[in-house]
Design goal:
Blueprint lengths: L5 E11 L4 E11 L3 E5 L6 H8 L8 E8 L11 H7 L4 E4 L3 H4 L6 H12 L5 H14 L5 H5 L8 H13 L5 E5 L7 H18 L2 E5 L3 H7 L2 E6 L2 E7 H4 L6 H10 L44 E4 L2 E3 L26 H4 L5 E13 L11 E13 L3 E5 L6 H8 L7 E6 L14 E4 L13 H6 L8 H13 L16 H13 L5 E5 L7 H18 L2 E5 L3 H7 L2 E6 L2 E7 H6 L4 H8 L7
Parallel strand pairs: 3-7, 3-8, 5-6, 6-7, 14-18, 14-19, 16-17, 17-18
Antiparallel strand pairs: 1-2, 1-4, 8-9, 9-11, 10-11, 12-13, 12-15, 19-20
Keywords: ATP-binding, Cell membrane, Membrane, Nucleotide-binding, Transport
Family: Belongs to the ABC transporter superfamily.
GO molecular function: ATP binding; ATP hydrolysis activity
Length: 600
């Protein structure tokens, strides 16, 4: 896309906390109708940049520089709350990562959409605003839009709630839409619907988009241009087809290498961990993790390029080998050809027969019958030593219900689960041999314990020198610094908490690990490291793994066998290769067609 008139112009933007500079003098523009992607690991400054542009930074964070919006006389960074209120929701809309946090739980979705419409006076009456909200939800392809407008957030699915948040952001036809990880927790089919809505609606109305995501394949399908951030700086920028097909900065190359989950190989994690802002190297922030760093990198490189919007900040970008080099391709020398068939005759650790779960709904009327909700229809499953089984399906398919039944956290309506040849439940004889990683790590971590104590919890002698050594080993294995062990869960990011949950589950070296979305909250670099850790545990220690994920690429990369669930029923199962190469059920084909793929 050829750049048009700048709509948003950011110049020398900084964000400072009391102890460090979090965003370090970045600058970029977004043209009218342009879609710009902002990518990078957690802690790189992506969300802070977006929040600073709208004056939404927390107290204690100080912005500097300049943020200008076309047609607005004042600088947004120095604007008053009254001035910013006239901009937010009308000229600029924002879609947040977590819809349940963005939506008011005690107000109906429709009234939250009409609030912005009435505040900015874009509809003359309350009735007109209400009709506009329903029309907008219909435009966003929400089934039964009038009913959805009357619903509270908890009565809607995750995808429907995200449409509600998108409706609030688009309610006044803004010139700029800022999307902060808008599809992270969504199934692939819903993710595709949401991104198609964003792209289609914005193309129709000429709306510009600043799209923040850690999913590079998604960015390649949505954005015209890409900005790569690391350590609070933009290290590379340019057209999406150039940056993602021929990256120049070592960090961009490392991100793309970590994204490549080619079956039969091992993805390359980025060495080391993202340092805290106060611990970043003085020169190039990536130098302590970069294979090409030398003495020259002690000085900060300036962005250079033939065009202002196609730059790279690296001293050695001209001397790097052509992309991809052997060191940046998936590691095919570490494949595991023997593993795929290994588990067929191995020890049976966990099995189910006719496993079923039905729930009784609320009675309809005084004498009405209580309806039955069929969460999981009869399912048979064998999990053997060294085997990796993936479970896929949309929200409400029964995946988490299955995992809770396997973990002994819920009672089946019919059928049962045998653990290590016994039918007395995971606590009777299984003990620490079965561990679980939950999707929401905060709910499973004791907030009163330090990270080091949490990881040591399942160990028999948790205060021993051996336990301390095991904890340090696991912290390193999941890509966390040693000092993270002294923190409490609330002091860590969501991705860091998920890594703590994985480390705790692996601490006692379990025979069976059940994992619900274990890597959904992780950056691509850490994801590669954790997936490598899980594969190693299954190949070297014969640990059995049952993993739920909405990321079908992760399932294909990690698992031997896959189960496809829909509305509580098993609709297809088989080896990963057979299901991916020749899916038989229309629903499986629909899921695979929705997987985002790199366009370049």
């Amino acid at each position: 896309m050829s750049p048009g008139e700048p709509l948003l112009e950011v110049t020398n933007l900084t964000v400072d906390s009391a102890s460090a500079q979090l965003v370090r003098g970045i600058g970029f523009t977004v043209a009218r109708g342009e879609r710009v992607g902002l990518i990078g690991e957690s802690g790189s400054g992506k969300s802070l940049t977006a929040l600073a542009c709208l004056g939404l930074l927390d107290d204690g964070l100080r912005p500097g520089g300049s943020v200008r919006l076309a047609g607005v006389e004042f600088d947004l960074l120095g604007a008053s709350d009254r001035q910013l209120s006239a901009i937010r929701g009308k000229r600029v809309g924002m879609v947040f990562q977590e819809p349940m946090t963005a939506l008011n739980p005690v107000r109906r979705v429709g009234s939250q959409i009409t609030e912005g419409i009435r505040l900015h006076g874009t509809r003359p009456t309350r009735r007109a605003a209400d009709e506009a909200a329903v029309e907008l939800l219909d435009r966003l392809r929400l089934p039964a839009p009038r009913q959805a407008a009357r619903s509270f957030p908890h009565q809607l699915s995750g995808g429907q709630r995200q449409r509600g948040v998108l409706g609030i952001a688009l309610s006044n036809d803004p010139d700029l839409l800022i999307c902060d990880e808008p599809t992270t927790a969504l199934d692939v089919t819903v993710q595709k619907e949401i991104t198609d809505l964003i792209v289609g609606d914005c193309e129709e109305r000429g709306t510009a988009v600043l799209f923040i995501s850690h999913d590079l394949a998604l960015v390649s399908s949505v954005c015209h241009r890409v900005l790569v951030m690391y350590g609070g700086r933009i290290v590379e920028s340019g057209p999406a087809d150039r940056v993602l097909a021929a990256p120049k900065h070592p960090y961009t190359r490392a991100l793309l290498a970590a994204c490549d989950l080619t079956p039969g190989s091992r993805a390359r994690a980025i060495p080391g961990v993202v340092p805290a802002p106060k611990d970043l190297p003085a020169g190039c922030g990536f130098s302590n993790r970069c294979a090409y760093a030398d003495e020259q990198c002690a000085a900060p490189p300036e962005p250079t390029g033939e065009k202002p919007d196609d730059t790279v900040a690296c001293w050695h970008h001209d001397a790097l080998p052509s992309w991809p080099s052997a060191a940046e391709s998936p590691d095919r020398d570490r494949t595991e050809p023997a593993h795929r068939g290994k588990a067929v005759d191995s020890e049976l650790l966990l099995s189910t027969q006719g496993l079923t779960r039905h729930y009784q709904g609320r009675r309809t009327g005084l004498f009405g019958k209580r309806p039955t909700f069929r969460a999981l229809e009869p399912i048979d499953l064998d999990l053997r030593a060294g085997q990796r089984v993936g479970v896929v399906g949309e929200s409400g398919a029964g995946k988490s219900t299955l995992l809770r039944l396997l973990a002994g956290l819920d009672r089946p309506s019919d059928g049962g689960v045998r653990y290590f040849g016994r039918a007395d439940g995971p606590s009777g004889g299984a003990g620490s041999r079965l561990q679980v990683v939950f999707q929401d790590p905060m709910g499973s971590l004791d907030p009163r314990l330090r990270v080091r104590e949490i990881i040591a919890e399942p160990l028999p002698a948790r205060r021993s020198a051996a336990a301390r050594e095991r904890v340090s080993e696991l912290l390193m294995a999941v890509g966390l610094p040693e000092e993270a062990g002294e923190r409490y869960p609330h002091q860590l990011s969501g991705g860091q908490r998920q890594r703590i949950a994985i480390a705790r589950a692996l601490a006692p070296e379990p025979a069976v690990l059940l994992a619900d979305e274990p890597v959904s909250a992780l950056d691509v670099s850490v994801r590669a490291e954790v997936l490598d850790l899980l594969r190693t545990a299954t190949t070297e220690r014969d640990m059995a793994l049952c993993v739920i994920s909405h990321d079908l690429g992760v399932i294909r990369y990690l698992c031997d066998k896959v189960l496809v669930l829909r509305d509580g029923r098993l609709v297809e199962s088989g080896t990963v290769e057979s299901v991916w190469e020749a899916p038989r059920h229309p629903y499986t084909k629909q899921l695979l067609a929705a997987v985002p793929r790199m366009r370049y």
